[in-house]
What does this fold into?
Amino acid sequence: MPITVPAYGKEAAGRLASMADVTADDGALRRFLHGLPGVDAVGLDARAATLGTRSIKTTAKAYAIDLAISMIDLTTLEGADTPGKVRALCAKGIQPDPTDLTAPKVAAICVYPDMVATAKEALGGSGIHVASVATAFPAGRAALPVKLADTRDAVAAGADEIDMVIDRGAFLTGRYMEVFEEIKAVKEACARPDGSAAHLKVIFETGELQTYDNVRRVSWLAMLAGADFIKTSTGKVSVNATPPVTLLMLEAVRDFHAATGVQVGVKPAGGIRTTKDAIKYLVMVNETLGEPWLTPDWFRFGASSLLNDLLMQRQKLSTGRYSGPDYVTVD
It folds into this structure.
């Protein structure tokens, strides 16, 4: 079913409107972003490391594994993608473990725009969303009309979610208003004629942003521009999601919610491959944002290889033994 972006409550809408002055022009936006508190890098790294040491017992671990599975955006973003590969991925998303029908389904299948219709048909009424990368993914180096056409094509084909990439060159050279206006324009392109809209995930490619302060600034910039989710990475560079960067983005979401009343989701992507890693991220979400964010509506993993390890750990908990390497499919 199409996603309808919920209207903000009157109080939240009012508080968000009260921040309109910080995006009134380039100077105001620059002053606001550079006026955000500086990030204590040592403290951030230490906090992330401490949260990663939490001990999760068997019952809680079983719950966390199923929750993590339900939060995965199962993804194929290769030049060699075919309709058959996409349909196979959709089948796995619907029933991740054919030997155990109690395994939860994933949150979304993420594909290029030309594969959206194929994924939509294959998923049918499963309730799994179709996400599509757009805006000249992964580099984001294209003219705005091209990016908007890319987005509209994906939405018209049935995409429930759009994962856009920001222009890192523009951000790193201080053209904040340019990035802000581009996100706003893509958000508008997510709208459908019936009044519903695809959710917008804004990808920062944090591995290219150089400093923690930049990550905090771009998080606020994207949320002010209307992002429904903020996302670490494309998964196409050497440095992707890391615990400290994700924690910093979670804290930005917490502070933005406190200031505006608007809830925004977070998606770490790339480099999260083990159940142990996934549980560390869930602990961070719980400790920083609390239970309201511990749902697929507000937290996702962009980590397709993670699913196989979660399934193997899930079977280990239920049977007491690990399966062989052929227990899960290789995507």
In short: Confidence is low (pLDDT under 50) at residues 1-7. The chain is about 45% helix and 10% strand. The first strand starts at residue 73 and ends at 75.
